[in-house]
Design goal:
The chain is mainly α. It has helices at 16-35, 49-56, 61-65, 86-95, 114-126, 131-161, 168-197, and strands at 46-48, 68-71, 78-81. The chain has a 3-stranded antiparallel beta sheet with strand order 1-3-2. The chain is elongated.
Length: 198
Amino acid sequence: MASKYQAPRGTFDVLPGDARGRARIERAAAAIFARAGYEPIATPAFEDTELFTRSSGETSDVVSKEMYTFEDKLNGESLTLRPEATAGIVRAAIEHSLTYERPQRAAGSSKFNLWRLWNFALDGLVSFSTAPLRAWFYVGAVIATVSVLYALFIITRVLIFGIDTPGYASLLIVVLLMGAIQLLSLGIIGESVEAARS
């Protein structure tokens, strides 16, 4: 016979079998974090509502869809069950002046010089997305538009006011247009390669 009392909608019970597995994962994660110098912290299950509205923004999904807010009957304060942990941890770090002290390197020295670190960061930015290529395609389109408009402006000015500095205008227009064509081509080639790969 089913009980009339059930877990509230959107919540669930962690039963003994699952709890043991969750505890193993938590222990393994705690060991990894401890080796990197991190320590555990526990913040209250609820915080002042303003903490979340200020950190996430009034119109964010966290504030508008994911928060359960209630009024403290004792003093009338607006409190919210924490929808995420970051804001509470930052509040605790500021309130208690917590700082992160990086442990000494366990062994050896870094094999990454500045150039290798730069390339590593660059790979992280562009390896999993065509967004940079698409951005440069749009930059190329804007430059191409500007160069055509500038060409029309120069032609109109020469027709109305006479000869301008010989060669200057045509050289600038050609340079802008060729640069724009290169950026447009790069964007198109990148999108084509990504389409063929996927």
